[in-house]
Amino acid sequence: MVCLLISITILHLVTLAMLLTATLEKWWVWEDSRISDLWYNCFHDNATDTWLCAATDESDWLQSVQALMILSVVFSSISFLVFVGQLLTISKGGLFYFTGLCQAFAGLTVFAACLIFTFHRKEILNDTRDLSKGRFGYCFILAWLCVPILFLSAMLYAHLRKRQ
């Protein structure tokens, strides 16, 4: 039982770190000398060998992706705090339904954010550049990887019973 609790806790913390990285880092879409994320558009200046960044143009689709990614971090954080609280207070045989529900909501919000970004990237990036030349960055891939992991941990929490 102890090994199961430790592995679930590590899985939860790894997923939370992946969500934070996907939300805050700058590599959602990139091409040769430009990168874009949820907060900034950056390009590489060869003369000074630095990245120059400017805030992204706000669009409704971008704001929805930003809000959904932040909500996923909040839901996952609440889920972890509730899990720790339930470990200390729940009676023997109790289930961790609320923790699993919060993880499922975190998974749904990340899934919705990734879908919106995938299908509306032209409106989100609001750019004249050819989007077929760019590639999705590692933060976008991290966000997609979080979806099945969050649903898996939600199922684990829903079936987990507290034992002595």
Brief overview:
This protein has 5 helices and 5 strands.
Tell me about this structure.
With 164 residues, this protein is α+β, with helices and mostly antiparallel strands. It is built from five helices and five strands, in the order αββββαααβα. Strand 1 and strand 2 (34-36) form a beta hairpin. The model has no long low-confidence stretch (mean pLDDT 84).
Gyration radius (Cα, Å) is 19 Å
Task: Name the strands of the widest sheet in spatial order.
Answer: 4-3-2-1-5
Number of helices: 5
Q: How many strands, what sense, and barrel or not for the largest sheet?
A: 5 strands, antiparallel
Instruction: Give start-end ranges of low-pLDDT stretches.
Output: none
H/E order of the elements?
A: HEEEEHHHEH
Number of strands: 5
Fraction of residues in H or I helices: 55-70%
Oligomerization state? single chain
Strand content: 5-15%
Give the terminus-to-terminus CA distance: 9 Å
Sum up the structure in keywords:
164 residues, alpha+beta, 5-stranded antiparallel beta sheet, 5 helices
Chart the SSEs and their pairings.
Blueprint: H1 2-24, E1 29-30, E2 34-36, E3 40-45, E4 50-55, H2 60-89, H3 97-119, H4 121-125, E5 135-136, H5 138-159
Antiparallel strand pairs: 1-2, 1-5, 2-3, 3-4
Helix pairs in contact: 1-2, 1-5, 2-3, 3-5
